[in-house]
Amino acid sequence: MGPTKLEPATTLAELQESKPDRVTIVVLSGDFDRVMAAFIIATGAAAMGMQVTMFFTFWGLNVIRREGATSGAKDLLRRMFGFLNKGGAGRLPLSRFHFGGLGTSMMKRVMNQNRMPGIAELRETAQDLGVKFIACTTTMGLMGVTKDTLIEGVDQLAGVSTYLAEARQGSVNLFI
Amino acid sequence: MIRSDVKLDTLGYFCPMPIIMTSKKIKELTLGQVLEVVSDDEGIKKDMPAWCETTGHEMVGLEEESKDDSRIYKAFVKKSK
Predict the structure, then answer these.
(1) What does CATH list as the number for A21-30+56-175?
(2) Which sequence spans correspond to the domains of chain B?
(3) Any bridge partners for residue A3, and if so which?
(4) Candidate list B15, B17, B20, B50, residue with the active-site label
């Protein structure tokens, strides 16, 4: 049997309707500026009607951890690591000019004065717009991040196959 | 002068906020109505047509005016789907 004939105009429209562009963003970094860029792209894409998935791994996990969350791990090493690596969107340092927190707080003040949304607000906007959040289980284990220390609304805990299954359908796949 | 049905003030907001606010606001309009997005972010000149092209709404036009020292941009978007 040959290919089914369809009205070209309606097919394209229906195709776009049923298959919106997909965007995946891997957030490995826990740097304030990089995470901000990730959320700006994610919220922008969602506002353009695209389907967006964000995968948080390594330092990026701090973005979706509760404010000040430490490690819930049992062993000493990971607990110590969790103590040094506290979670929370409000704690992310700038990749440059952090200066022990001084540079970052100055940047936040400037942003505030200019009515620019911070990381927590952008994260909330992303969730409002239906951006899907996935936390990487491997790095959660490695870094002693437990499920109960994550924020509300993390859609899935998953691994590389889930990422690839999404990314192969994505027209925009970013690694930040 | 382009006529609009609904006005959206995004003055003082930077990218991506004007686009996000537009995508929320457009849902409140009925088909064929025109939304006027007022912004002082120059990026909107390129961003709004791009948003329209991707989402399938019609970019009716863009007006620019000077207010004090700053430029104000008015993007007109017709709800088309």
Answers:
(1) 3.40.1260.10
(2) 6-78
(3) none
(4) B15
Q: Smallest Cβ distance to A47: which of B12, B14, B19?
A: B19
Q: Cβ distance B64 to B33 under 8 Å?
A: no
The amino acid at A25: I
Cβ contact B59:B22 at 8 Å: no
Q: Is B27 on the interface with A (CB under 8 A)?
A: no
pTM of the full structure: 0.84
The CATH code for residues B6-78 is 3.30.110.40
* Mean pLDDT, chain A cut into blocks of 10 residues (176 residues total): 52 58 96 96 95 96 90 80 83 89 90 88 95 94 88 92 92 96
Q: Are B5 and B35 in contact (CB under 8 A)?
A: yes
Q: Does A49 touch chain B (CB under 8 A)?
A: yes
Annotated catalytic residue B15: yes
Q: Does A37 touch chain B (CB under 8 A)?
A: no
Q: Of B12, B20, B56, which is closest to A47 when you measure between CB atoms? A: B20
| A142 backbone dihedrals φ, ψ, rounded to 5° | -60, -40
- Domain boundaries of chain A, sorted by first residue: 21-30+56-175
ipTM: 0.79
